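Much of the work behind modern protein science is quiet bookkeeping, done one molecule at a time. The protein below has been through that process, and both of its lines are reproduced in full.
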Amino acid sequence: MTGKGLSYGGSLIRPEATGYGAVYFAQEMLGVRGDSLRGKTAAVSGAGNVAQYTVEKLVQLGAKPITLSDSGGFILDENGITADKLAWVMELKEVRRGRIAEYADKFPDAKFFAGKRPWDVRCDVAFPSATQNEIDGADAKSLVANGCKLISEGANMPSTPEAIEVFQEARICYGPGKAANAGGVSVSGLEMTQNAGCMRRSRTEVDNQLQIIMKSIHENCVRYGKDGDYVDYVKGANTAGFVKVADAMLAQGIV
């Protein structure tokens, strides 16, 4: 069992890991192009654990997250969701179990769009962090048309096959969840090693390990997905996974 409470063997950074990891993966994708997240406008969906820590890490790395959402709709804060505003969202969602619409009441410069998803806003990067199939083909076209150059999936399979096709045809950076949101299970693995060794790593140590893991995943995606000056991260992630299993089978004499 992983994701345990700290009092009975859980790991620091585990709650943050999926959101942090998706941001670290995005930073690696941009790094291939000689760019970074600093100064980038980010659209983020969801308002739960993954979305909250995605926003937290984006702010720390100098990006400007401008959206959050829940099943009722999304908020757009063009001034940026700051650390203080995020703390209020965390209290809203984790303590009061409120609705994201309340954000616009608390911060009047923000707007709430009932029943809509945040994929029609202008942004440089997008982090779908809510649920499966939340970006369809039309949403993907809107993102590309509005200047989005990178998608890093924090949720599991948030983009439909039609959306993925749009991203690939536009040749933008598209990090599929099987690679980009691996931070959560990676820190679960680190939690298991801590338990096995009867030890505990500090926040800094776990976070550093998470960054190393996401960098390694990205490198494998580039290794198998590079096509000229473009990286097909879907192909790279699929091939890297296949090769890892195939090599293990060969090493054990199964094939």
